[in-house]
């Protein structure tokens, strides 16, 4: 039996993860964690997270967006 997960406040997520409108329901950010090393992470309203690290900020963000898109696609498939 699945447990109900209360959604998080979208405004709080948007404050912590300012990049949105990349994947429906997901919020992202990219941070430089050391010289030339970046981490991109994302979260959705239900607590799922994605993360990627590397030396190219666009690439790590793209990898996170692709992973989150996969979640959205699988959600749509399971709802059908």
Protein model, in words:
By secondary structure, this protein is of the alpha+beta class. It has one domain (23-79). The chain has two helices and four strands. It has a four-stranded antiparallel beta sheet with strand order 1-2-3-4, sandwiched between helices. Strand 2 (26-34) and strand 3 form a beta hairpin. The protein is globular. 16% of the residues are buried.
Beta-strand share of residues: 25-35%
Reported for the largest beta sheet, the result is:
4 strands, antiparallel
How confident is the prediction overall: mean pLDDT?
90
Total of domains: 1
Amino-to-carboxy terminus distance = 19 Å
Key features of this structure:
38% helix; single chain; globular; 4 strands; 80 residues; 31% strand; four-stranded antiparallel beta sheet; alpha+beta
Brief account:
The protein is α+β, with helices and mostly antiparallel strands. Helix content is 38%, strand content 31%.
What is the topological layout?
Layout: H1 10-16, E1 19-20, E2 26-34, E3 37-44, E4 49-54, H2 57-79
Antiparallel strand pairs: 1-2, 2-3, 3-4
């Amino acid at each position: 039996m699945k447990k109900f997960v209360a959604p998080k406040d979208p405004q709080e997520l948007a404050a912590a993860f300012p990049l949105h409108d990349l994947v429906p329901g997901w919020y992202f950010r990219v941070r430089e964690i050391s010289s030339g090393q970046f981490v991109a992470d994302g979260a959705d309203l239900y607590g799922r997270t994605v993360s990627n690290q590397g030396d190219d900020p666009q690439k790590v963000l793209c990898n996170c967006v692709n992973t989150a898109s996969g979640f959205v696609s699988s959600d749509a498939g399971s709802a059908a």
